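Incident log, support desk, overnight shift.

02:14 A customer reports that sequence design results differ from what the structure should imply. Their input is reproduced verbatim below. On-call engineer (initials T.W.) acknowledged and began investigating.
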């Protein structure tokens, strides 16, 4: 469903002579065209009666009613066609925007996968380095503890009891 106040494509607005118009304006313009057509037909009907003066009107009301009906029908068809085209254009705009969003989502997914692989590689490298450090520390501890002499004099290091 179209949101009230949604901006229409520039071509649609130019076609109706508006700049920066929205769907509500298009509907008002189309309905005002229909209203003007009906008013014009009624004025023509009234003018023909006034021009006849005091003459007895011929039985042509049916013809005039047909003319009013035909003009009104044409105006409604025109307004419906214009509105239908606007709806199609709005739908196409939505599809175009959705396609752009899909393209952006695909691009972001590719970047996310690449970043995930890089992070994984860094974590694996960190784990290897941590393992090397752990092994080196263990080896150093063993070397210190098994060295020929006592590397640290225990009596001087500990406080008297």
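02:41 Re-run completed on a clean worker. Output:
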């Amino acid at each position: 469903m179209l949101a009230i106040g949604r901006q229409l494509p520039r071509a649609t607005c130019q076609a109706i002579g508006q700049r920066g118009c929205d769907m509500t304006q298009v509907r008002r313009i189309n309905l005002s065209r229909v209203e003007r057509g009906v008013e014009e037909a009624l004025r023509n009907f009234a003018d023909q009666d006034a021009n006849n003066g005091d003459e007895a009107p011929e039985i042509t009301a049916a013809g005039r009613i047909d003319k009013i009906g035909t003009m009104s029908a044409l105006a409604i068809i025109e307004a419906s066609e214009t509105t239908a085209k606007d709806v199609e254009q709005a739908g196409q705009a939505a599809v175009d925007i959705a396609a752009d969003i899909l393209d952006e989502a695909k691009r972001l997914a590719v970047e996310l996968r690449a970043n995930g692989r890089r992070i994984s590689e860094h974590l694996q490298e960190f784990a290897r380095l941590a393992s090397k450090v752990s092994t080196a520390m263990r080896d150093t501890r063993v070397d210190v503890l098994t060295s020929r002499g006592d590397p640290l004099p225990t009596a001087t290091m500990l406080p008297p009891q």
